[in-house]
Structures are given as structure tokens and as C-alpha cells.
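ok so i was messing around last nite and threw this chain in just to see what happens. nothing serious, just curious
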Amino acid sequence: MKYYFTSILFLIPLFGSFVVLCEEETKKDAEKIKITVTDITKEEKVEETTQIPEKKPEEKPAENENAPEQPLSKFAVVNKLDEILSVFEAKSPTGLGVMNGETEEAIINETLKKLRRGIVFSREKSKEEAPVPEPEYYPPVIVSSQKVVYIRIDGFSEKILTMLKDDLQSVFRLKNKPKGVLIDLRNAVPHKYDYVVTLKTLALFIPGKLLPFIDGVEYPELLVKNMPIIALIGGKTCGEAEIFLNLMCKMKFCITLGEITAGSPFRMIEFPLETGGYVRIPEIPKELSEITPLPIPPSIVDDPVHTGKQIGYKDISSQIDTEKTDPALKNALEIILCVEGLHPEKEEKKVKSEKNNSGNRD
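result:
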């Protein structure tokens, strides 16, 4: 027991030293903690006092008045029209009144015309069209004192293509070659809507490489080269003839004289509507999708009376100067000869070339 108390007395100073040491260490740790807390507080204060610049609202780019308008959907157009008619009916004392079937058809078709896609609405089903007979072939005739080739085409077929190609080859083998070509399409109507045959016929007047590519189709040789071409057209001109004209005029290989065409280059297919009536749309081949099914206006507008006086083929092929009885034909011939007369250097080159060839033979 004495030993126990002696040990305690011995340990008390040591324990006191340990307590003092611990207090000192505790004070140091507290100071460290205080410093750390202070530093953290400073950092937080820095973060709190640091001002982040506010983002300015993005300025919308100025609207470009010349920028193209975004295309409208068909529903936007229909909804807008419905709203306009509703406002008119509600606010106008007269209202819209009673609409009959003919008015409905007229309004719908006037709207469809603005789409420029050849769509037609009808209340009644269309009558079946009678089959069109095989078009007659008219061999080319050299008129106007043997200066212009007159070609009359009333329809397109494989037979006509073959015969026309053979005859044009013979014409352009002549020593005194014609100076221009006149194509009469005033009575050209659709036959079988054979677009391949039409394009092959067109290749006699336009290089085949410029025509639409059709897999497996080979275009014939170009026969009409470097001379003015005028096409006579009228209100009866339709079907494949309008495709023929469309491509020829678009590539600037000819000018046209007469009246505006019928505006029906493609076969029309008809579908019944659930709301009543029928819609007819043009059946456009993928290769000819660039052709808009619209009437073709003439380059030179002629009197409708003149256009309608087409000379009979027998008259023009068997008698001299009978073309004067066809005013539109007469005007077209005068234009061709005037155009050719504006380029006398062609004739001079031709004469020089013939002289050189003659000298070489000698």
C-alpha cells in the first residue's frame, strides 16, 4: 500500500507535465484550426465577393428583308383560308351566301392553278377518252424558193420517227442545203404518250447529250445543225408536242410563233375523293420531272385567226408559193429568212470553203 501511494506521488508531477504539454499542444492545434478556419473563411469571402459578369441577353440578328420566305405547309394555307372566310362570314352583313357545286369547283380550280402543278378538280367523273388513231406522217417539204424545210408533225410515233430521220438525211445531203427549219405543231395531239419516241425525235434537232438520260435508250444522230428553227403552235398543241417544245425552247434551240398551247403535256390520271368529286393529276415520268405541266406561251404572238388557217399539206407539197395562203406560216418564213440574212458571213465562209475544196481537187 505504501508502495502504491509512493508511485502515485511520483506520477503526479509527471502527469501534470503531460497535462501542461497537452494543453500547449491543444492551444497550438486550436490556433492551427483557427488559422485554417480563418483561411477558409477568407476564401469563402473571396468567392462571395467575386462578381461574375452577368451574361447579356443574346441579340437577335437583324431580319434580312431580302431573305427567302420559309415555305408554308398545306395546312397553314388551308387554316388561313378557313379563318379568313370565317371572319368575313361573321363580320360582313352579306355573309358568304349559298355556295353551289359550280362555284365550289371554280374556287377550288382557281386555287389549284396557283400551285402550277396541273392539278384539276371535277365534280363529275371524266368520260373515257376515245382512242387516238395513228398520226399521219407528212414528209418534209422545201419551201420559200428552196430555202426552208417545212416539217408538219401532228403526233409522235416510232414509225414517224424512222421516216422523218430518213427524209431529213436526204434533205441535208442536197448540194443547196436549206437555210432554216419550220416545224408546224398547230394540230399536234397526244397519241400514246410515248415520251421515249418524243425525245428520240427531238434528238434530230438537239444533241442527244443535252436530253434527259434514260437507261437503255440511245438517241439518234443530230441532223439539223447551225440553222434557225421556228415552231408554229396553237391552242390545239398538246401532249408530247408540248414536251418537245418545252425542252427545245428551254435550251434555246428554237423560237415559237402563234398562240399559247393547251397546257396538257402529260397523261392525266383520276382519283375519287372521300369528300366528293374527283381529282386529276398529271402522270409525270421521273426523267421529265423538270417539265412543269403548264401552257407554253409563244415567243412571238400571232393573230389567232392567222394561227387557225393552217394550210393543207397537199397544197403546200404540190403547189408553188401556196404558203402565202397561211398567214402564220408566211410570217414565220419571213422571220427565218431575216435571221439568216443577218449572218452573211456564213455564206461567205461557205463560198470560200467551196473554192478551197475546188482548188485542192485541181
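not much to say yet. Strands lie at 120-122, 141-143, 148-152, 180-184, 229-233, 255-258, 268-272, 278-282, 300-301.
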